[in-house]
Specification:
Elements (H helix, E strand, L loop, with lengths): L1 H15 L22 E2 L2 H4 L12 H4 L5 E10 L8 E5 L16 E5 L11 E14 L2 E15 L3
Length: 156
């Protein structure tokens, strides 16, 4: 959690500093540049509906299953490893750690066997997207999973 707090503080400082142009919102991510053959995922599509367990996902979301994809966001490590092999990716830190908990469709679970260097700045993740309910002990634990090929730090 301390990593997230430090990153959030740094993000605010950069975005609100007097010598840096403001993006107009604290939740703005850098423009996404999807590599050739990849679909650029849009957080507004992934988050653009109210998720209900057992209810069919919107067609535009379900159509993304199995696609080579690119998405950017903030890392939320799911372990204490220096190079996490699994982390949650969220579109902004306000949705995750400094407000109410995000809805299950407001994050992507990323698996990256090589391990990603932690960044408190946004990262660009590319890989294959899996869409659909994943359950553990009867509870939905994710709707989106990305088997990453690459994780790259971005600048604001």
């Amino acid at each position: 959690m301390w990593r997230l707090a430090e990153g959030f503080s740094r993000d605010l400082s950069i975005r609100c500093g007097d010598d840096i142009p403001r993006a107009g919102t604290l939740t703005a991510l850098p423009a996404i540049k999807a590599p050739p053959g990849h679909v650029a995922l849009d957080w507004s599509v992934l988050k653009g509906y109210e998720f209900e367990p057992g209810v069919a996902l919107p067609a535009a979301v379900a159509a993304l299953h199995g696609k080579k994809s690119a998405i950017n966001g903030y890392m939320i490590p799911l372990s204490t490893e220096a190079r996490p092999r699994e982390f949650a990716l969220v579109g902004n830190l306000w949705d995750c750690c400094f407000g109410k908990p995000p809805a299950i469709n407001h994050g992507v679970i990323v698996s990256f066997p090589a391990g990603a260097e932690y960044s408190d700045f946004p990262v660009l993740v590319t890989g294959t997207l899996e869409v659909g309910e994943e359950r553990e002990d009867g509870q939905v634990t994710s709707v989106y999973r990305l088997r990453a090929d690459a994780v790259q730090a971005q600048t604001l």
